[in-house]
Design a protein that fits this description.
single chain; 7-stranded antiparallel β-sheet; 11-stranded mixed β-sheet; mainly beta
């Protein structure tokens, strides 16, 4: 790794271009070098290997990044580099999630990775989803080998702590990073924040990262790095930018805006994006790029020389020079003559990069040639030393080398191959690629079209930039590489076309290839990224068994002659058996006396093959000798190749015409008064001079042109004028012939020419059509889908009303309304509302995609859908809208922002208002039992319950508020519940209509929530007041949140208050003076929602805490906070009150904690109260139930294994502690969970742990004065040790030898009395020690006695019980509601389980009946099943499906990523059709039963073991 000194000194390189030390096969910049032409010779790409079955996928690697649930996307191209400290080559990937990966180039192993920032989100771009959903690194970086630094730009947000949330465009930022290629660490002086940089050529224009997009590949020239910027979908007040910085100091040296001096900052345009192509340079001080459309339009019709550029560079090819300080100066430009029309149709010139062609393409005075193609489909060949300015050509047109109109829009940079005559490849959307050949005749440069591909490029935009390779620069080894977004993801062609067509030699299907990619090469491998998280490498995975002489060059030979034989020597790299020898192509080469096969060749031995050359055509020719072998050595192929090359020549003249067809498409009648021009080539391929003896022509007869040209002037054939036909051609020379089509009259025209010469006869056909301009007709289906509505600018298309939880899909149609013979309609911009938030969305980005072409009369359509979200009844309608940005080549249309609107409406329940809306409006989802019932009156509980039924009942009773809850219950009241919550918390369906919502148990489960409606004709009590810290009352002022003391209480004096509010507590502490004390307490503190503590000083260890720690609402005032667990809201006295008397009371509070043995502790709690006994106003923790059950605290449910109490259970919507205790009379424990579920057991499962008491927060639905657990929390009770020992057994669960004891509510000096119950079957006894109080039990039980305070020493009493079973029976509590069945004699209830997301909990469905299914029937079916191994588990799902299995497979047996879980019993809510008094599961919820014998046979874990987990 280079040191800091070397890093800083690296800036002395000057204008050196690509640095020295680059490994032979590395790719460190976009396109391979700064010319951006994409021709690369250094990657060992041998056509004989690439075209064989040896060449295939080497690796496919999923990048691990996942932000917001989205896979990685690679829009920037990878770079390939071999660091100086070794010989291993690496590939560097950068993604839209701002992750970078360093990967072994041969194996695909990720050796390092780093996240730079969170990504910017597409959600902030108003429907621009070109890159979706994340925008991070989208431009190809560059590696400086001198400093071994990778430079990248990354889009993100200012705040890195806000995840997966759109922060708004003003928060968007762009950073420049300099990354050490070895360990991916940041270089000194980086990253750079580009925000608020002013333009050097327009100080009023400021760069803002949120609205700009960095897409072009970075450029490294000397000491400096440059980046180009554009916009997102031509939105907002953007400008194109070129920003440069020093590569080591990070100093910004240039910030040039395309909208420069005298252009208002509100004028947008001139983006530099080039479909991701790189800024180009000649490495001699010049930089080149192309820009997009804009709105300054400084130039009108007056020509402007290129060397006097305007300050606004829109639709331009730009030439800038690099100054010594890194700044840039514009020196030349080119702008198409129809610039304003291109702007209007969004036909960017700069959709493709401006590429600098290799020197082989120079001609005459033109030394440097460039090529660029725009969205209009026009390809421009430019003189890079005189770009052409604006309207400086003939007839005020373009002063360029050549213009060619392709069939459709082009976004891809040209492919360039300088060998074998020179070729240019243009990839056109929806059409075959066009191939042009270099021609230089008498100093005149041209590029006639000579071929196309047989394959058509993708229907949607995205076909790649062209890339070419050759094997170390050898002619005959050229390959063209094309990637595409549809069909074959990678296509590989021979670079030289044959007979007007490109030859496809290999192809691969690669899913998810991103648009505008470019194949990237390493050592014999090609790398391609995707938008699905995968990256790919293709190459030859094996070595050749033979090393044969290659290439063998036969030199030049005359046509049809036979050359002297040449020998090809092959040396064996391993022991092989040669099984066959043949040629890949037989037309030009012959194997002389091939050896008999098979024969063996030992390692190191050689053999020879003899071949001759007999050319059938002129030019460079090649074929491969293919030697097939067998071998037993791993890593070697079964064949080897040896290339044969030779050049065919003709001594005599030889005529050739290319191409053999010239066509003129999409020509608008009269648009070009001077006609439209194309070219073809007349070639003399022979050595001798060629004479054209005759030219015959016809305007309509291809088989027999009957008219002979006179040979003088121009040849006019119908609408065509043919110029520059030569009479003679020297050997190996070419003439470029112009064809001008007169498009002044609409129609379809043709011409046929036949050239007769002393070197043969050749023919060419010419075809053209001219017609009216395209006409875009936009329509949208009517709401019933029966007819169409035409678009009127400014008026939206309307979906109408769509009912909640419903969707309406309608078609948007575009038709080319031009008459027959008219020009094709091209969608130059098409941005559908796909992947955006809102009601309206397009189905995809394929239909009516950008680049779509429609013939006259042809239509294309796309589906848009308005999806009304699921909502409650009686909510107000919601209006939705979406936009589709569209532009076409219709000259009269211009860019359109087409709007679609939709009205999402909910069902309305009567009584109705005059406007048709319900009188009772939905208010929201509210917390019930908070604490106690919020709506006090239950109107009914009905299995046919719906919101409409409940609203009708409320209206009849005249209630202001009404709500639905627990599927079937309707409640009413005249006071609004305290606290509104998230809508997701109301998640229960109504028992009378599965599509309606009737309360819920919360998004996380375990809550109690009601769906609330309010009468709009009444006086709404308004939304609940948001809770806050009471600032002070009664002379006390809030001083913040404090922790409890290290030992004992922060404030030592507890006070009982009847109402748990701040004022009541403050007043109680203030009243201390009334008890004979000299002054009121200085401090008052509230804890656990209502415990009141007083004191004059804080005990040791009590310190201020964050205000957010005190987050429990006061039990009797939900608008203010009353501390939390071990946290107090503290108030300090500011005035002295009068004295009064006091009364001291002591209360005994039983508590316990167990993990193994059971310890019951009774703690006297000393409190100060008023002389009268307070009356409880809320629920309390019952210390004793039914005289024999003692409270054990709040305990967790077991989440993996048997329940905490698993012997018996039932559920009741009127559950009380007393009814559960009665039901569990024969067991040692009972516990209540979820407010309504009762569980019994003799042993507490080892996976259950004691929780904070306040976790058990559900009010018992049958008795609002007591608590009944919570979600996955049990209010636990143990049978008292005072019960006769013959009636009960109290076992110790020996799965743990530890004992946890929790005491409650005492002051630090409170004495304790404890009783410990031990089982006679336990191997060990456990004792406990009382600790200081940490729970809220004192506040709920301190009012049970008014006796005077006493102090007793601590004593411990141990009682040992005998083991016996009880035979006492009692009737089960009768419930009018359905319950959870206990099972039968052999099966017991095990719980409600959710199904995994893959596979099933139980394997075999044995019965399915929607009329008579019951739990008893299913258990009987599983018991009686004729199977080899009895079923241990049974369950019912969906109310009618009976499933059995030997094990409960939480992973579904298929490794589910979301396994099944023991969920709330209330989730299994479907009634059994054969017994409607019990539940039979629900959707993907299984009411599960376990075989008792199997359960009892399960081994108990060792004392130190983990809790039991079911085997599955």
């Amino acid at each position: 790794m280079k040191g800091l000194g070397a890093w800083l000194l690296a800036g002395a390189a000057g204008l050196a271009g690509l640095a020295n030390g680059l490994a032979d096969t590395d790719t460190i910049t976009w396109g391979g070098d700064n010319s951006r032409a994409g021709y690369q010779t250094n990657h060992n790409m041998d056509p004989s290997v690439v075209g064989s079955n040896q060449f295939g996928q080497i690796f496919k690697v999923m990048l691990p990044g996942n932000y917001g649930g989205a896979a990685e996307q690679i829009f920037s191209q990878p770079l390939v580099y071999t660091p100086n400290n070794g010989t291993t080559q690496y590939v560097y990937w950068a993604t839209t999630q701002n992750n970078i990966y360093k990967m072994n180039a041969k194996t695909g192993e990720i050796v390092a990775q780093r996240n730079l920032h969170i990504p910017f989100l597409t959600a902030d771009l108003d429907g621009c989803v070109d890159i979706n959903p994340n925008i991070g690194i989208t431009a190809t970086g560059v590696i400086d080998p001198d400093t071994e630094t990778l430079y990248l730009t990354a889009k993100t947000y200012l705040d890195q702590t806000v995840l997966n949330k759109a922060q708004g465009r003003p928060a968007g930022r762009y950073y420049v990073h300099a990354i050490d290629v070895n360990d991916l660490s940041e270089r000194p002086n980086f990253p750079l924040n580009l925000e608020n940089i002013a333009a050097t050529n327009n100080n009023d224009r400021i760069f803002t990262g949120g609205i700009h997009h960095q897409r072009p590949g970075l450029l490294h020239v000397g000491d400096y790095i440059y980046a180009g910027f554009a916009s997102h979908c031509v939105q907002y007040e953007f400008s194109g930018w070129i920003i440069g910085w020093h590569k080591t100091t990070g100093k910004i040296v240039e910030s040039w805006a395309t909208e420069g001096a005298n252009v208002p900052v509100t004028t947008k345009g001139g983006g530099v994006w080039m479909s991701g192509g790189g800024l180009a340079s000649d490495n001699a001080g010049s930089i080149f790029f192309a820009t997009g459309n804009g709105y300054a339009s400084q130039l009108a019709t007056i020509p402007v020389k290129g060397f006097s550029p305007p300050t606004s560079q829109e639709e331009s090819a730009v030439h800038m020079t690099l100054q010594p300080d890194g700044s840039l100066k514009i020196v030349d430009f080119f702008m198409p003559w129809e610039k304003q029309a291109l702007d209007g149709a969004d036909k960017d010139l700069g959709t493709s990069p401006l590429e600098l062609l290799p020197p082989e393409f120079a001609c005459g005075d033109i030394k440097r040639v460039g090529v660029v193609t725009g969205k209009s489909g026009k390809t421009y060949w430019l003189n890079m030393d005189n770009l052409g300015g604006y309207r400086n050509g003939p007839d005020n047109r373009d002063a360029v080398i050549q213009v060619y109109q392709n069939d459709n829009s082009v976004y891809a940079g040209a492919g360039v191959y300088p060998l074998e005559g020179g070729y240019i490849y243009i990839n056109v959307i929806q059409y075959p690629s066009n191939i042009f050949k270099y021609s230089c005749v008498n100093g005149v440069l041209s590029f006639p079209k000579v071929a196309t591909t047989a394959e058509t490029n993708a229907y949607i935009l995205g076909v790649s930039h062209g890339t070419t390779t050759s094997l170390n620069g050898q002619p005959g080894t050229g390959l063209l590489w094309v990637t595409d977004v549809q069909g074959l993801g990678l296509r590989i062609y021979n670079a030289v076309p044959k007979d007007g067509t490109m030859t496809l030699i290999n192809s691969f299907n690669i899913p998810g290839v991103n648009k505008f990619t470019r194949a990237v090469f390493g050592d014999g491998l090609v790398y391609i990224g995707s938008n699905q998280g995968y990256v790919y490498a293709y190459g030859s995975p094996v070595n050749s068994p033979l090393n044969c002489t290659s290439p063998t060059d036969f030199g030049t030979a005359d046509l049809k002659s036979n050359s002297t034989a040449k020998q090809v020597t092959c040396k064996a790299n391993i022991d092989v058996s040669v099984t066959g020898v043949d040629l890949s192509e037989h037309s030009d080469f012959v194997l002389a006396a091939p050896p008999a096969v098979p024969f063996n060749v030992a390692k190191g031995s050689t053999f020879q093959l003899s071949a001759t050359f007999s050319p059938s055509k002129v030019g460079l020719l090649s074929a491969d000798i293919v030697v097939n072998t067998t071998n037993s050595v791993a890593g070697y192929s079964i064949n080897s190749h040896a290339r044969l090359v030779g050049t065919g020549q003709s001594i005599a003249p030889l005529l050739d015409v290319a191409p053999n067809t010239v066509t003129f498409d999409s020509v608008v009648t009269g648009e070009d008064p001077q006609g439209v021009k194309q070219q073809f080539l007349i070639n003399n391929l022979g050595n001798s001079k060629l004479t054209i003896q005759q030219v015959q022509y016809s305007a309509n007869n291809a088989s027999a042109p009957g008219t002979t040209w006179s040979g003088t002037g121009d040849l006019v054939v119908g609408q065509f004028t043919v110029r520059n036909i030569p009479s003679t051609l020297d050997g190996h020379s070419t003439a470029s012939v112009d064809v001008i089509f007169d498009s002044s009259t609409s129609g379809t025209y043709s011409a046929f020419l036949k050239f007769v010469s002393d070197g043969g006869t050749k023919s060419i056909s010419i075809a053209a059509s001219a017609g009216p301009a395209a006409k875009a007709v936009l329509e949208f289906q009517t709401q019933d889908g029966s007819s169409w509505v035409k678009y009127v600018e400014g008026q939206p298309f309307d979906f109408g009303n769509v009912t909640e939880n419903q969707a309406r899909a309608l078609k948007f149609r575009i038709t080319n309304g031009a008459p027959a013979g008219g020009v094709q309609l091209s969608l130059t911009v098409s941005k559908p509302p796909f992947g955006v938030d809102g009601l309206i969305k397009a189905a995809n980005q394929v239909d009516l995609a950008e680049g779509t072409s429609l013939a006259p009369g042809e239509s294309g359509s796309a589906v848009l859908t308005c999806s009304a979200p699921k909502t409650q009844w009686n909510v107000a309608p919601v209006n939705g809208s979406a936009g589709w940005t569209l532009n076409t080549n219709d000259p009269n249309m211009g860019k359109q922002q087409i709007r679609f609107i939709c009205n999402a409406v909910s069902e309305q329940a009567p009584p109705l208002l005059d406007n048709g809306l319900g009188q009772y409006r939905y208010k929201g989802c509210y917390i019930e039992n908070n604490p106690g019932r919020q709506l006090q009156t239950q109107l009914y509980s009905n299995t046919n319950n719906t919101n409409a039924m409940c609203i009708a009942a409320c209206a009849k009773g005249g209630y202001l508020y009404c709500g639905t809850q627990y599927h079937s219950e309707c409640w009413a009241g005249n006071f609004i519940p305290k606290q509104q919550t998230d809508e997701f918390d109301c998640n229960f369906d109504c028992s009378g209509d599965l599509n309606q919502i009737c309360g819920g148990n919360g998004n996380a489960g375990g809550g109690s929530y009601i769906s609330l409606f309010v009468d709009t004709n009444g006086k709404d009590t308004g939304p609940p007041t948001p809770p806050g810290v009471n600032p002070g009352v009664s002379g006390y002022t809030s001083i913040g949140c404090y922790t409890e003391a290290t030992n004992g209480r922060a404030l030592p004096n507890g006070v009982g208050i009847d109402k748990k509010t701040v004022k009541n507590c403050v007043d109680a502490c203030k009243a201390n003076v009334q008890n004979g004390n000299p002054a009121p307490y200085k401090y008052a503190g509230l804890e656990y929602g209502g415990e009141c503590w007083c004191g004059n000083a804080f005990s040791a260890g009590s310190v201020p805490a964050p205000a957010s720690d005190c987050n429990m609402l006061c039990n009797d005032n939900a608008t203010e906070y009353c501390g939390a667990g071990s946290r107090l809201n503290v108030y300090q006295l500011g005035a002295i009150s009068t004295s009064s008397t006091t009364t001291t009371t002591t209360t005994l509070v039983p508590t316990s904690s167990t993990s193994g043995s059971i310890t019951s502790t009774t703690t006297p709690v000393t409190t100060t109260t008023s002389t009268s006994t307070p009356t409880p106003t809320g629920p309390a923790r019952k210390a004793v139930v039914n005289s024999v059950w003692k409270a054990q605290g709040c305990w967790t449910e077991v989440t993996n294994g048997p329940r905490a109490l698993s012997d018996s259970t039932y559920a009741d919507d009127k559950m009380t502690l007393e009814s559960c205790a009665t039901f569990c009379r024969n067991y040692n424990y009972f516990g209540v969970e979820y407010g309504r579920e009762c569980y019994c057991g003799n042993v507490l499962s080892s996976g259950s742990q004691q929780a904070a008491q306040q976790d058990c927060s559900f009010i018992c639905p049958g008795d609002g004065s007591e608590y009944c657990g919570a979600g996955n929390r049990l209010e636990l009770y143990l049978r008292s040790v005072n019960t006769p020992t013959s009636d009960v057994k109290v076992p110790v669960d020996t799965s743990s030898t530890t004992t946890t004891t929790v005491t409650t509510g005492s002051s630090s000096t409170a004495p304790t009395t404890s009783s410990t119950a031990l089982s006679t079957t336990s191997a060990t006894s456990a004792t406990s020690t009382a600790t200081s109080a940490t729970s809220s039990t004192a506040s709920t039980s301190a009012t049970s006695s008014s006796a005077a305070s006493t102090t007793t020493p601590s004593t411990t009493t141990t009682t040992t019980s005998t083991t016996s079973s009880s035979t006492t029976t009692s009737a089960k509590p009768t419930s009018t509601k359905p319950v959870i069945s206990e099972g039968n004699a052999n099966f017991t209830y095990y719980g409600c389980f959710s199904e995994p997301n893959s596979g099933r909990l139980l394997t075999n469905q044995v019965y399915n009946n929607k009329t008579d299914m019951s739990i008893a029937k299913c258990l009987q079916k599983c018991e009686s099943a004729n199977v080899k191994t009895p079923y241990n588990f049974a369950g019912v799902e969906y109310g009618q499906e009976c499933w059995c299995g030997t094990s409960l497979r939480l992973d579904g047996g298929q490794g589910a990523t979301k396994p099944g879980q023991n969920v709330s019993g209330s989730d299994c809510s479907f009634l059994c059709p054969g017994n409607k008094t019990e539940y039979c599961g629900a959707g993907v919820r299984l009411s599960t039963y376990v075989l008792k014998a199997w359960l009892k046979a399960q081994p108990q874990p060792a004392p130190s073991a983990q809790p039991i987990k079911l085997k599955y």
